[in-house]
Amino acid sequence: MSQISLTRGAAPRPTDRAQIIVIGNEKGGAGKSTLAIHIATALLHAGARLAVIDLDLRQQSVGHFFASRRTWSQANGVEVPMPWAMPLADDAAQLAKASAEDQAVAFETAFATVAAEAQFVLIDTPGSDTGLSRLAHGKADLIITPMNDSFVDFDMLGQVDPVTLELVRPSTYSEVVWEARKQKMLSERRSVDWVVLRNRLATSEARNRKRLEERIDVLAKRVGFRVGPGMRDRVIFRELFPFGLTVADLSSTVRPVPVSLTHVAARQELRAVMQSAGLGDLIEPRSIGGAEGAAPKSAGIKASARVYRPVAASPQR
């Protein structure tokens, strides 16, 4: 696999086209859907025109989340911002049994519909290598990969020597992302930004975490991704999911569970995720809930903010 260098930290460029965010990792249990719904609700509270496509045709966690969100808000007489949730079919489970060609047609149709109207299109991918997942990666402007702080998850990104633990080579998912970035550059002359977010595990041992951090840094320089903090495995995330809510929604009128200091910490964690993904400057400081759980003072993308746009990548010599 050739190396790709990515210019980092540059200001986003203004654009009228929809920005495509793909949440991807071919390993299950990495927290893709949890990350997807939190990024989605943060963007919604910022007033973004957001479309969501759930490509996990069997589980449909993101689709179920937003269906529950609508039901809960109507039952409780409160308003919460909703995305344009675009199913690929009326019966996703049936589509999962269809041919790869039929699935591709369904995706392209849904994508074309929402990309023409939305400001952001967020695509949640399944925890496996599928044709739909590769199609989505080919559309991406920004790929966000959550991973748990363990060598079990790192194995999907890079292989290490079992004796020295030194990085040997990029692994399967890194190859998929590299191919998507290469094709994007060749066909559209645009690069794909890639951010790996490290979910912090309470059981992660310090020495092992340090070893992992070193290998991640080496791989990041080799294949060109940025690294940022992910999200902890918090009880509040699981408590709010059945209602179709996240910590970004909590306010004086939206409070299905008692608010505590841990919820404030969870909101701060979400802000850090948005900053790491390059999306933090697009939203008002209080868009993701107030320190006391108050509703946002104003909903909307900042008038002076520029819409996210990755900087062009160039092959390393």
SSE layout and pairing:
Blueprint: E1 4-5, E2 19-23, H1 32-45, E3 50-54, H2 61-76, E4 84-85, H3 92-96, H4 100-115, E5 120-124, H5 131-139, E6 142-148, H6 151-154, E7 158-160, E8 167-170, H7 172-188, E9 193-199, H8 206-223, E10 226-229, H9 235-240, H10 261-276, E11 314-315
Parallel strand pairs: 2-5, 2-6, 3-4, 3-5, 6-9, 9-10
Antiparallel strand pairs: 1-11, 7-8
Helix pairs in contact: 5-7
By secondary-structure content and strand pairing, the structural class works out as alpha/beta
- Outline, from the CA principal axes? globular
Number of domains: 1
Count of helical regions: 10
| β-sheet strand percentage | 5-15%
Give the second-level CATH assignment, the architecture: 3-Layer(aba) Sandwich
**Poorly predicted residue ranges:** 1-14, 290-317
Subunit arrangement of the protein: single chain
Q: Gap between N and C termini, in Å?
A: 13 Å
Q: Which CATH class is shown? A: Alpha Beta
Largest sheet properties: 7 strands, parallel
The Cα radius of gyration reads 19 Å
Average pLDDT, all residues: 82
Helix content: 25-40%
CATH fold-level name: Rossmann fold
